[in-house]
Specification:
The chain is built from eight helices and four strands. With 185 residues, it is of the alpha+beta class. The model has no long low-confidence stretch (mean pLDDT 92).
């Protein structure tokens, strides 16, 4: 099974449990805690992935680290993933879970790259416009700058990209001019 499918399967299972038991907030917080622990401790993750360490030892490691700190359901999910030799996908599965929670709540994740820093007013207007034109009722916004855009910005929500940069317009114009040049000969 491909890693993306595995992550999606376990993340979705956790999401279904969270909705069914009305524990979305609790499990979302726990998922973030587990992701943080594993991300900040790469050696711990290496132990979980090490082929010479027995699965039962890995489960004992997980239980000693997380039992009592997160719910039995979260600890159980982690142990099931290790039993099924899916420990490499723990972080991505928990990320999938968090993504499903955001979708369920109508929260979009938007990445904006602009040539210059945006003012608070510009950010607010952009967010309002995105809410008007998408199915989301709020956004988790991520901003960065890239002077190579020359001007304008790019907006990415999921797999959709809106490129309103000067660089993109210049590239389009260049392609058009090359095409006209080739056709004229």
């Amino acid at each position: 099974m491909a890693a993306g499918v595995v992550s999606s399967t376990y993340g979705h299972a956790l999401f279904e449990l969270a909705v069914e038991e009305n524990r979305i907030d609790e499990l979302l917080i726990e998922a973030e805690i587990v992701k943080e622990v594993l991300s900040e401790n790469p050696d711990y993750q290496k132990l979980l992935e090490h082929p010479r360490i027995d699965r039962e030892e890995k489960i004992i490691l997980l239980e000693s680290c997380f039992r009592g700190r997160v719910s039995d359901d979260m600890t159980g999910l982690l142990c099931v993933m290790v039993r099924n030799d899916r420990q490499k996908e723990i972080i991505s599965s928990l990320t999938e879970f968090a993504d499903e929670v955001r979708e369920y709540r109508g929260i979009g994740v938007c990445h904006v790259v602009s040539a210059l820093l945006l003012t608070d007013d510009q950010k607010e207007r952009l967010t309002e416009r995105l809410i008007e034109t998408t199915r989301y009722n709020s956004f988790e916004m991520h901003y960065e700058t890239d002077p190579s855009l020359i001007g304008g910005l790019t907006v990415r929500i999921g797999d959709r990209v809106i490129d309103m940069s000067i660089r993109s317009k210049l590239n389009d114009l260049t392609k058009t001019l090359r095409q006209v040049s080739v056709e004229a000969q």
